[in-house]
Design brief:
13 helices
Length: 309
């Protein structure tokens, strides 16, 4: 049933998942109702919801546009499942905004495969990553993916290696100007966020433990499947899959080293893992195996969501 619906790209699929995301978002937000009394708080929640929906659509677009999936909506579905698997993600504005910028950067880096306007793509991707770092500092590690992409596609032109530094100084200048004009203490936020912590003491809720255990299990399945099937992918897409796998590991490292650790920091792995999950499902030849796996992923995601409300 699930695979039958999402194996094709239909408007109904997008509407269904978007409505489910809206419902889950408000169910989580209504745990506290004080924000409903202030117009600015309602506006901020609306912006977060738009950011989440945009992230879903953008992830699906990147996957299809670059030939990383067939004509289906699996990336859209799985990204949504990962979001509700860790409902605290729905209430973390900094991570939602930061991850949206990272997805924009991934869009430019993956499309670098075409070699059309490479300098613009490198600069844009670097710019988005440094912007993302203003909201969650350790997302700056994705700049490694920029240099790897340069090495894979346009290493011979030395000017391409300079572009990320120009993007850094652009964002740094604008950031300093904003801080000085607004007289805010944003430097304190960055300095606090730039620390490294391997403290995992936040596992105090058994439902959080169940969610992270399930995520670890499906991650192992999809990642192993992607690595094994990688040689069988079209040669033209090999570099794109390398970037997706590297993006996942960078996201996981961010989770490991970030201070104030919680499950929602795994958001940086959601888009790459959704691509790998799509690749896994497209490779399953036995229909009932595909359907059972989809039911488990979707069903346990919803179960985890409602247990953590």
């Amino acid at each position: 049933m699930i695979t039958t619906i999402f194996s094709k790209s239909r408007p109904f699929n997008y509407v269904l998942v978007t409505l489910l995301l809206v419902v889950c978002f408000f169910l989580y937000q209504l745990k506290e109702t004080e924000w409903l009394q202030h117009a600015d708080s309602i506006g901020k929640k609306a912006v977060l919801l738009i950011g989440l929906v945009a992230s879903l659509f953008l992830s699906n677009f990147i996957t299809k546009k670059n030939g990383l999936s067939k004509d289906n909506t699996y990336p859209f579905l799985f990204f949504f499942c990962f979001l509700i698997l860790f409902p605290t993600t729905l209430g973390n504005p900094n991570l939602i905004i930061s991850n949206f910028f990272i997805i924009l950067a991934l869009r430019r880096l993956i499309s670098l495969q075409s070699l059309v306007a490479p300098k613009e793509k490198i600069f844009d991707a670097s710019l988005w990553i440094f912007l993302a770092a203003l909201f969650h500092f350790w997302s700056i590690l994705f700049i490694v993916l920029v240099f790897v992409s340069i090495a894979l596609h346009v290493a011979r032109d030395y000017r391409n290696w300079i572009l990320p530094y120009i993007a850094f100084f652009t964002i740094a200048t604008l950031y300093i100007a904003f801080v000085l004009l607004s007289e805010t203490s944003l430097f304190e936020h960055l300095s606090d966020d730039a620390t490294v912590s391997f403290d995992f003491d936040y596992f105090t809720n058994k439902y959080q433990n169940i969610a992270i255990s399930f995520y670890a299990a499906i991650t192992a399945l999809f990642l192993f499947s992607q690595i094994v099937s990688y040689p069988n992918k079209p040669l033209i897409h090999h570099n794109s899959y390398k970037k997706i796998i590297l993006a996942f590991f960078i996201g996981f490292i961010i989770y490991l080293i970030s201070p104030h650790k919680n499950n929602s920091i795994l958001i940086y792995t959601f888009m790459p893992l959704a691509v790998m999950a799509t690749s896994y499902f497209e490779g399953i030849k036995i229909k009932w195996t595909q359907e059972v796996t989809a039911i488990i992923v979707v069903g346990l995601s919803f179960l985890s969501f409602f247990m953590q409300l």
